[in-house]
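FAQ
Q: What does a multi-component entry look like?
A: The components come first, one per line:
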Amino acid sequence: SAVISQKPSRDICQRGTSLTIQCQVDSQVTMMFWYRQQPGQSLTLIATANQGSEATYESGFVIDKFPISRPNLTFSTLTVSNMSPEDSSIYLCSVGPTTSYEQYFGPGTRLTVT
Amino acid sequence: KQEVTQIPAALSVPEGENLVLNCSFTDSAIYNLQWFRQDPGKGLTSLLLIQSSQREQTSGRLNASLDKSSGRSTLYIAASQPGDSATYLCAVASPNDYKLSFGAGTTVTVRA
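Then the predicted structure of the entire assembly, as tokens:
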């Protein structure tokens, strides 16, 4: 299994500002994913972040709004830029598939934009 | 595009009853299917994973089946306990890029 930590665990931010979320994994992994879970909704994939290549974004998500870095095989960041209240969500990173074929998720970052 | 549906959306049962959670998906070309548990305000805990070539997977009181041809999976939880109260999410992995497509979840309440 993989143990994943995220920072911060939660934050309250003002409209128009940016927040960078960090994701740290306890082992080297090739594939990392960033998801968003809006209040009362299920998870939606934002982008795939593989080390050594540019992140690939899903439809409806753009790099200017959600820039991602993947400097090595154990770390990634997601920035939520120019925030609005609609960005209030839980943001989760995941890794996988691992040797057990599973994907593992971090504890999430709960973001509230006022 | 893969669409994943979970029925029912919510379920309330007395302690000791067996739980049956359903998941359906539209594209049978999958890498695997994973069941997760999510407690309020928390991240996801992986419960069971079924590879595309498997029909069933068991862990303790949990049993998950997969019928890939009909696009269905069922999660059974035997002898439910109040601690089983949570939201259960079904996710299907794409065989090409391992991206997960999630259902909306089933929120389970087990009454003591």
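Q: Is there any commentary attached?
A: Sometimes. For this entry: The radius of gyration of chain B is 13 Å.
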